[in-house]
Design a protein that fits this description.
Chain A is of the alpha/beta class and about 290 residues long. Helix content of chain A is about 40%, strand content about 20%. Chain A is built from ten helices and ten strands. A five-stranded parallel sheet of chain A has the order 7-6-5-8-9, with helices on both faces. Chain A has a three-stranded antiparallel sheet with strand order 3-4-10. Chain A has a two-stranded antiparallel sheet with strand order 1-2. Chain B is of the alpha/beta class. Chain B folds into two domains: about 260 residues, Aldehyde Dehydrogenase, Chain A, domain 1 (3-Layer(aba) Sandwich), CATH 3.40.605; about 180 residues, Aldehyde Dehydrogenase, Chain A, domain 2. In chain B, helix 6 links the parallel strand 7 and strand 8. Classes of the chains: A alpha/beta (about 290), B alpha/beta (about 475). Chains A and B meet through strand 4, helix 9 and strand 10 of A and helix 8, strand 17, strand 18 and helix 15 of B. Strand 10 of chain A pairs parallel with strand 17 of chain B.
Chain lengths: ~290, ~475
């Protein structure tokens, strides 16, 4: 009796809630840390970037409009499903990153997702205010989601790094177009499968695999993108991408000098950067 | 029996401004002659020269940035917050003490009505210092973690529409957070910023903590692009804001931008119409419409459009346009010939594109830069007067049928600074306020400002906030 032949997975893009191939028909070979073939991934094109931005824009009113409590529940549900697929993620991280501590990386990623899920209905309490203005008015300030965020996922930390930049985008009520790590895209697609079967509406997260350097300029210059997290942007393009962002006054989280240590406890910097303070005034009186 | 009740002229005494024939820039605690070409600041209401003002050259920018750096490293940065606070409180008090002088000077230099500089600009400028002074020793409680650090040297470039007030919005939070500043006032309105420099000197503020460098746009570009600054704050046009964002791209320097707007002012059919009419007038004619958050697009529900438009014309027809120093003047002078030309160009595009133009029949002075309040009706969204910031006393009126249509039209702009909502129904106010993609929403009021209330835009109206706890972030390394 021969060994059973395993069913290999085809990795595609995650766009508008479904898993299409790149419209360009391109794929590229993804290897593990020892340079052994893992799979072919879709190599997204400029058109895929544009489709992803449209999907993210379309999903924005719904996702930003649900209650913060609901958003928290939906995101917590994602963590539950990550936990259920823990072994799969451990193996995906081990393959992609060659990490001997893959299990602890996955645990931290799940915990991080839970941390951000719990933020949805606290952001306004912490960042908002009742403003004591000098006049007969009630004035209050609330943080609101910035809009469509272009996320340049970290190039090295394919799951924990991705979760650390994506979860705050979603917790704050934004929708995302993610350019995954070019060389380590597979955990992001596996995460997309979790998102697709969770209650996160289609289009809220769109995941493009491919050559970050090729897609970066198109995402940074897209007029319907409101903010960029350049965390995993190619270092030699960072200035150029920020210049492109200026054309429509995008908010930019600049690329760090080197990839952060994602195991460190997060703070709320990303939640602050990806929300807009809105101040509302109304007169008081009889 | 009907009677004409005419106002007698009630001009404020211009001597109160203590106008000097020459003003010099303020650098490292001294008033010095700049190496720039110099400029003449004129009174836009009369076109007379008010004063000669020395301007900075690039070498002065270097000197000022170096002075600000020294002051930050050696004096202002290490100083305990409680001590910084006392200097800032002093400044607040001294602005209040010299408020009449500053108000008259502001009106002479800018052209805005004395009642606005006296009741709004100057007191609010003092309030900004008073408010932020209190933060200087309480930053641990501002929600950015323990002991938040200043950024360092802040380069600040401000516009001509609220000269002293914009300086206060920029300088007060910067100082409270422990930064030092180099500020460039607008080319056409440098005078009150230089009197403010006198106040800094008289308050004993250590040399180099505040530096004021008058100049034109080239000096602004020099300052914001200077490698020695840590932070840039700009208020002005979206076009220049984008240039600055490009300049700073990849440098890692912090930037906040407060840019243009094309605010929708939405009047629902259940609005208190008379109150709304007052609010619409205030929204667009306050400060001659030279307001980035002006309610320049009136969206009125079809069922009340004729009534609103009729009452609006009657009310606008009674606005008094003329001598800004006259206490009865409602609408003063356009700030410059250049701005007047821009307003004229955009209003003629409105006529060419087919909107109905109504102009107030009010008499205008023979000299100076004046523009009669103007209302365009039958405006469609594609017209330039519905899309571009006019920055003048010109209102574009569009109509809508359903609340959803109002929201869609209000948000149909790359800007997102402010919005107005007029309705008696509380739930509708909150419904609409949630849906406005704008940083400030005024419901049943308009153009309210306070140092405790964060102000700033969505989208191409800029990023970062000024005022409130939120506004401190712009000047802290957090």
């Amino acid at each position: 009796m021969s060994d059973r032949v395993t069913v290999a997975k085809t990795y595609k893009l995650y766009l508008g809630g479904s898993f299409p191939r790149s419209e360009s028909g391109r794929t590229y070979a993804v290897t593990d840390a020892q340079d052994r073939f893992l799979a072919n991934a879709a190599q997204a094109s400029r058109k895929d970037v544009r489709d992803a931005v449209s999907a993210a824009r379309k999903a924005f009113p719904g996702w930003s409009g649900v209650t913060a409590y609901n958003r928290g529940q939906v995101l917590y549900r994602v963590a539950e499903m990550l936990e259920g697929r823990r072994e799969q993620f451990v193996s995906a991280v081990r393959d992609s990153e060659g990490a001997s501590n893959a299990a602890s990386i996955v645990d931290t990623a799940i915990d991080r997702w839970v941390w951000y899920a719990g933020w949805t209905d606290k952001i306004a309490t912490v960042l908002g205010a009742a403003n004591p203005v000098a006049g007969p008015y009630f004035s209050f300030t609330v943080p609101e989601p910035t809009g469509v965020v272009g996320v340049f996922a970290p190039q090295h930390s394919a799951l924990l790094g991705l979760v650390s930049v994506l979860a705050p985008v979603l917790a704050a009520g934004n929708t995302a177009v993610v350019l995954t790590s070019s060389a380590r895209p597979l955990p992001a697609i596996t995460l997309s499968e979790v998102l697709a079967t969770s209650d996160v509406p289609g289009g809220v997260v769109n995941v493009l695999t491919g050559d970050t350097g090729e897609l970066a300029g198109h995402l940074a210059a897209h007029a319907d993108v409101n903010a960029l997290d350049l965390c995993g942007a190619p270092a030699d393009q960072a200035g150029e991408l920020e210049r492109a962002a200026a054309e429509t006054v995008k908010r930019v989280l600049p690329a760090p000098a080197s990839e952060p240590d994602w195991t460190r406890r997060p703070d709320i910097k990303r939640l602050r950067a990806l929300t807009e303070a809105k101040t509302v005034w109304h007169p008081t009186g009889m | 029996m009907s009677m004409e009740w005419e106002y007698a002229p009630a001009p404020e005494n211009r001597d109160i401004a203590r106008l000097k024939s020459e003003y010099r820039m303020f650098l490292d605690g001294e008033f010095v002659e700049g190496a720039g070409p110099g400029l003449k600041s004129i009174n836009p209401a009369t076109e007379e020269v008010l004063a000669d003002v020395s301007t900075a050259a690039p070498s002065d920018v270097d000197t000022a940035v170096a002075a600000a750096r020294r002051a930050q490293d050696k004096v202002w940065g290490p100083m305990p917050g409680a001590e910084r606070a006392k200097y800032i409180f002093r400044i607040a008090r001294m602005i209040a003490e010299r408020s009449r002088e500053l108000a008259v000077l502001e009106t002479l230099d800018n052209g805005k009505p004395i009642k606005e500089s006296r009741d709004s600009d100057i007191p609010t400028a003092a309030a900004h210092f008073f408010y932020h002074a209190g933060w200087a020793d309480k930053l641990d409680y501002a929600g950015f973690g323990p002991d938040p650090r200043p950024l360092g040297v802040a380069a600040q470039v401000i516009p001509w529409n609220f000269p002293l007030l914009m300086a206060a919005w920029k300088i007060a939070p910067a100082l409270a957070c422990g930064n030092t500043v180099v500020l460039k006032p607008a080319e056409t309105t440098p005078l009150t910023a230089l009197v403010f420099a006198e106040i800094c000197a008289e308050a004993g503020l250590p040399p180099g903590v505040v530096n004021i460098l008058p100049g034109a746009g080239d000096i602004g570009a020099e300052l914001v692009g200077h490698a020695g600054v840590d932070k840039v704050a700009f208020t002005g046009s979206t076009e220049v804001g984008k240039q600055i964002q490009r300049t700073l791209a990849g440098t890692g320097r912090k930037l906040t931008l407060e840019l243009g707007g094309k605010a929708a002012n939405i009047v629902f059919e259940d609005a208190p119409i008379d109150q709304a009419v007052e609010g619409i007038v205030n929204g667009i004619f306050f400060n001659q419409g030279h307001v980035c958050c002006a309610g320049s697009r009136l969206l009125v529900q079809e069922s009340v459009a004729d009534e609103v438009l009729g009452k609006l014309r009657t009310r606008i027809g009674r606005l008094r346009i003329g001598d800004p120093l006259d206490k009865n003047t409602d609408v003063g002078a356009i700030n410059s010939a250049e701005q007047l030309a821009r307003i004229r160009e955009l209003t003629s595009s409105g006529e060419v594109e087919g909107a109905d133009r109504w102009t107030s029949p009010c008499p205008l002075p023979d000299k100076g830069f004046f523009f009669a309040p103007t209302v365009f009706s039958q405006v469609s969204q594609s017209m330039r007067i519905a899309r571009e910031e006019i920055f003048g006393p010109v209102l574009s009126v569009l109509s809508f049928r359903t609340p959803d249509e109002a929201v869609a039209k209000a948000n149909n702009t790359p800007y997102g600074l402010s919005a107005g909502i007029w309705t008696e129904k509380g739930s509708r106010i909150l419904w609409a306020a949630q849906r406005m993609r704008a940083g400030v929403v005024w419901a049943n009021t308009f153009n309210r400002f306070d140092p405790a209330a964060p102000f700033g835009g969505y989208q191409e109206s800029g990023f970062g906030r000024e005022g409130g706890r939120t506004g401190l972030e712009a000047y802290l390394d957090v």
